[in-house]
Amino acid sequence: MNLTDEQLERYSRHIILEQVGATGQEKLLSGKVLIIGAGGLGAPAGLYLAAAGVGTIGVIDSDSVELSNLQRQVIHHTPDVGTPKVESAAAKMRAINPDVTVRTYFDRAGPDNLVALMSEYDFVIDGTDNFSSKYLINDAAWFARKPFSHAGILRFSGQLITVRPGQSACYRCLFPDPPEPGAVPSCSQAGVLGVLGGVIGTLQATEAIKYLLGEGELLTDALLTYDASGMEFRKVPVRRNPRCRLCGPSPTITVLEQQDQAVCDLSGSCNC
Prior knowledge:
By secondary structure, the chain is of the alpha/beta class. Helix content is 33%, strand content 17%.
């Protein structure tokens, strides 16, 4: 791939970076990232991936834009209320960068489509809003052998971890099972500071970009937590659970199934 004069100018701040250069930018333009959920986390991630020149970005979401989304889901604007989120998100990403191909899936990610969908991409960003989807994405990534970034926000706090199936701790290694229904409030019940989506979502985009470039250290085997109230980041080492029911040596989860759970917390993003 040869960069055009326009691309050399557009990506000039990347190209002058020793860790990126023209070769790295070509890797980004050839890269494919899937965003599951165009909400609080997927919104900023999508904007920055498009701006960075990630060549193909997939977005799957079954919801339409609501007025209450706009406090944190910055890819959507007031005139977009009532529009499918995938359409609203795609329009903004294409406006930022015509180099980018945006594939939209106005659908719900489920056991019947997720593994096949992941197989078309290099990296996955989990921007969903409930435990059921979190576990489904983790398990699907295991079966598809696709790296992904998990994240969650609630109130003034956020967290994220990157999973490389078979190489690092998975989501179930940290949280083997979802909590009991009603044990954790949703963001619509407890609230969330809008800018948290930007802080954590852009970190997810950073992980995707680093993976495509093959540069730096991914946030594997470590949980990064963020407390906006005290402005504190904390990196907590984690390791694979030898008794993990998914990625352990004696797995009991051998088929992809969805667990019914409809709340979000720091183990689920705030797309609600």
